[in-house]
Amino acid sequence: MLNSIRTLILALWIVALFAGLTAGAETAQKGSLEQYFQKARQEYLQKDLKAAADEVHKAAAYLKSEAAAAKGKGKEALTASYREMEKLSDELKKGTVKSVKEIEMAFARAYNALATNSHVKSAEAWSKKEVQKAGEELDSAAEALGKAYTWAGQEVKAGTQKVISDAKELSRKLKEGAHQASADAGKALKDLGQEIKAFGQKISSK
Fold first, then answer.
1. Is residue 126 situated within a structural domain?
2. DSSP category for residue 179
3. Domain boundaries, position 78
4. pTM of the complete model
5. Nearest residue to 109 via CA among 190, 29, 157, 37
6. Which of 107, 112, 132, 143 has its CA 20 to 30 A from that of 150?
7. How many folded domains does the chain comprise?
8. CA 179 → CA 169, 183, 199, distances in Å?
9. Contacts of 88 by beta carbon, 8 Å cutoff, 6+ apart
């Protein structure tokens, strides 16, 4: 009986260990968009254009995956972004990218596309009374907009910062399941949506 219990514990431990290693490998393989962007910038500055192109290609695949699951304006923005990443990757391989600023602005547009998509998902979740999901996506939209500003090298002005801060505060309440936050949700979603759209137009490559 004791041996059976020991065998069972050992088996469970091995399964748990394998699952952990698999999850870790998948995380490492997938990476994050920010990691891809940071590495691409670093490789470009070190004149390793092939390595930079490879990182941008990974970013393109990440954005393409996000676009596949997106809807409406979010899908449109992410599709345009992953196509821009694919083009940027090809240009890096050819050595025709003239400055690191070109790369940084493309990355800023990618984050703005992610902000657009998260905003769309937040608004949809809110309309369905999926309060916690609305909060999570609202937080993601605010975070992505902040990163878009960072990559573009532009200062977040007081009015925009307030909108971002208000959105994050509301998202916190929504994630905690605060249904009474409904009075603030409509305004926060509208204001953040306007900021995302305005900044997207400002940094547009067109």
1. yes
2. G
3. 30-202
4. 0.83
5. 37
6. 132
7. 1
8. 14, 9, 30
9. 56, 97, 102, 103, 106
